[in-house]
Design brief:
globular; about 30% strand; 2 domains; alpha+beta; about 30% helix; 4-stranded antiparallel sheet; Immunoglobulin-like; 10-stranded antiparallel sheet
Length: about 475
């Protein structure tokens, strides 16, 4: 009996040790500007000297799961242009809002401290591009993170996917198309309420995959099966919104700067001009704020089968003053050529065709992607012409509120793996970057996984979407 009790005690102790090993401390709150009391969006919340972190949403809110082993470490809340807030994780109060004060450096310091440093925006950016080989990872690594993919029109969400992903990269200098892999590990949510009536997607699919050419007006919905349309829509989803476009394409501006025809390549100043705006502070480090504007040439993405040319770039670069590492990119492509202006207005009702934000985290003296936001309009149908004789019901299908779609993809990375043995084990699995293939829901996996919080407004739209999707499935 005594021996049996000892055995039970050991089992209980072992269970407690395992439980503690997987226990988490949840840190959550709201970040506000001390002067204006307005929410601070995209502030960084992370544990010092780790890659455990998240960013605040449009309401300034965040939630972060911190493993038990790091509860005595320092939690840092920072945002460009503000003084950082630092406190041990186990002393953070989830019931008290966090206020950040503005912190701005002076441009005069550039003249006083560094006469020999580059002084113009163009020269600073060229220096930063030159330093990419030093500042970006030069050996293989793996990142794990959270992906949210959502699609909506001007009224409601039509589609939502939330997944856990793994990204393998062999390092800066290698071709991403050959040496960068992406896998969708788990799926958290998948709601799809898009109307399966995209004639334009079907026509594009047929024209890209057969010798014959057809026009949308030559195709009737009644003559197509649902399977034909689903196949065409999935094809269009992957070429326009697949993960490969973010990681392996031109919009991965820094990582792929050595690729042929890269946007931030050898001819960067032909497509962009850079103007030094001011000097800011980020977590006690000075950084340049540099404006991106148009240059002599148009910007194009070279997307196969899509006229994705004729843009000018605008936005901002934030570059650390001490080592020229790029901390953040805010990048938009705006229709500028006559052909692209007409196309964008007619098909998308907007001139901004691509909106990209990438922030980087410094880990072991290298800059790794931390947060990615990518927004682009998406063609759903060919629109309505007033001289066509159609029913009121058909006209309603093409109203602007329903017709114009756009997609948003957000990625938060919260783990970096540098250990060669762990990387080798990960590479042995089957990799699949298709975010559109459903996977079973694993409740235990998501219990302690770091995700991005939605804004209150978007969360309400997601609730509506999930309700409608459930009703649709029950029909």
């Amino acid at each position: 009996m005594h021996r049996r009790n000892i055995k039970k005690g050991l089992l209980v102790l072992n269970f407690l040790v395992v439980s503690l090993g997987f226990s988490q401390t949840e840190v959550k709150n709201k970040i506000l500007d001390f002067g204006t009391l307005m929410p601070i969006e995209s502030a960084s919340i992370y544990v010092k000297n780790t890659t455990i972190g998240t960013v605040s949403n449009a309401d300034g809110k965040f939630v972060l799961q911190v493993p038990a082993e790091f509860t005595t470490d320092t939690l840092i809340i920072s945002s460009i242009g503000y003084k950082s807030y630092k406190i041990p994780v186990n002393e953070f109060d989830n019931s008290v809002d966090v206020y950040l004060e503005e912190d701005v450096a002076s441009l005069d310091e550039i003249v006083l401290i560094a006469e020999t440093r580059p002084k113009t925006g163009n020269d600073i950016v060229l220096k930063a591009i030159e330093k990419l080989a030093v500042n970006l990872p030069d050996s293989a690594y793996i990142q794990k993170g959270f992906l949210r993919h959502k699609e909506r029109n001007k009224i409601e969400f039509k589609w939502l996917i939330e997944s856990a992903i793994t990204v393998y990269d062999s390092g800066y200098g290698s071709q991403s198309a050959e040496h960068l892999k992406i896998n969708v590990d788990q799926m958290r949510k998948s709601y799809d309420l898009r109307d399966v009536d995209s004639i334009f997607s079907y026509v594009s699919y047929k024209n890209q995959n057969s010798r014959s050419r057809i026009k949308p007006r030559d195709v009737k919905r009644s003559s197509l099966s649902t399977n034909q349309l689903v196949k065409a829509i999935k094809w269009n989803d992957n070429r326009v919104n697949g993960l490969q476009n973010i990681f392996q394409g031109k919009l991965n501006l820094l990582r792929n700067s050595q690729d042929t025809k890269a946007l931030f390549g050898a001819d960067i100043l032909d497509k962009h001009q850079f103007t030094l705006d001011t000097l800011l502070v980020d977590n006690d480090r000075k950084l340049y704020k540099i404006k991106i504007s148009e240059s002599s040439d148009f910007v194009g993405l070279g997307t196969k089968g899509i006229f994705n040319e004729g843009y000018i770039a605008q936005g901002w670069l934030y570059i650390y003053y001490d080592n020229y590492a790029i901390k953040k990119i805010e990048y938009e492509l705006v229709a500028a050529s006559d052909a692209q202006k007409v196309r964008s207005k007619r098909l998308f009702d907007t001139q901004v065709n691509h909106k990209l934000i990438i922030t980087y985290m410094e880990y072991q003296d290298k800059m790794y992607p931390n947060y990615v936001y990518y927004e682009t309009p998406k063609l759903v149908n060919v629109g309505f012409k007033t001289d066509e004789k159609v029913s009121d019901e058909e006209k309603e299908r093409y109203n602007k509120e329903e017709r114009y779609y756009y997609t948003v993809q957000e990625i938060l990375f919260s783990e970096i793996i540098l250990d060669k043995e762990k990387i080798a084990l990960e590479l042995q699995k089957d990799w699949d970057m298709d975010i559109f293939s459903p996977k079973p829901y694993n409740k235990d996996f998501w219990k302690n996984y770091n995700i991005l919080l939605e804004s209150e407004e978007d969360e309400k739209l997601i609730e509506d979407l999930s309700t409608k999707a459930s009703l649709f499935e029950d029909e």
